[in-house]
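Batch manifest line 360
LIGAND: zinc ion
JOB: complex structure
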Amino acid sequence: MASTRVPVLDGHNDTLTRIREASGEEARTFLERSEHGHVDLPRAREGGLGGGFFAIFTPSPRYERVVRPMLRPDGTAVPGGYTIELPPRLDRRKALAWTLSVMSDLFRLESEADGALAVVRTTRELRHCLENGTLAAILHIEGAEAIDTRLEALDVLYEAGLRSVGLVWSRPNAFANGVPFDFPRSPDTGLGLSAAGRRLVEACNRLGVVVDLSHLNEKGFWDVARISDAPLVASHSGMHVLCPSPRNLTDRQLDAIASSGGIVGVNFHVGFLRADGNPDAPTSLEEIVRHVRYAVDQMGLEHVGFGSDFDGATMPGDLGDVSGLPRLLDALREAGFGERDLRKIAHENWERVLADTWSG
Ligand SMILES: [Zn+2]
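JOB STATUS: finished
ARTIFACT:
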């Protein structure tokens, strides 16, 4: 049977940041096809990308990235294990200025795209885009550093179109603490939300903004699970039992997400997929299938989606970039997922969670 095209609504890309930072030979625009990076409009169309969360990520200022071997309590090294120091906190005003610049990039792109891309603010707009082949961009900030603890910037960013807030990237901020990129390690790496963090979650609930748990440490996760009245969302994470990175979710966390009616967008980053956590080893997209299968078995089909991390991570070689999405869908078909299952994983589950979270 010929397979029908299933549009993908993707939980996370870093394309806006990557394009803004690219220079020299790697410089590219979103509207023209490039050999570099993972997402542009021509490749998105080829891969059947219907839309996604376009993250605004404020890069850390240059700091020395120290990678040390992970040691056991007796002082011997864990084979393949490593510890990476977290980057320092960001300056809030610099983060806000960067965030406004990248938002402006997206709005300019929307006007230049001549109807091919739209920033969506309601589920009606999202559905319209998915039905009509307009690429839907959901505005997300990865780390809430641009927001002050009085949450004034949140109101303004919301009015501009912000519909999803990752409380942290992998560094501390005024609201919460992000996990380091150590391997292997539990996500229980430090303190939970601050009082401002708890207020931010409540404000996001009130406005109808997604609170994204990816990058958040485990105590913060349980704080959000206790406070939030919205479905729990981890936009780009993997399964800790399959790959013990602190960026991945334990079975208990998966169960909490499922029982809240939420979703995990399975991350495609090689280092969060492989059992050995090696981000540089040749890797097949079958590793993504393995995580999707586990997530479905653990949480149920309704709670699993994609969260590629395109333009922010290392993709399996046979996926390549966004134009490889049909190969991933075919691999899932071969693994026994039917067309109805695929529609749920590819976009319907994300649509349901957004309908249950957004206020319009
Ligand atoms: Zn991320």
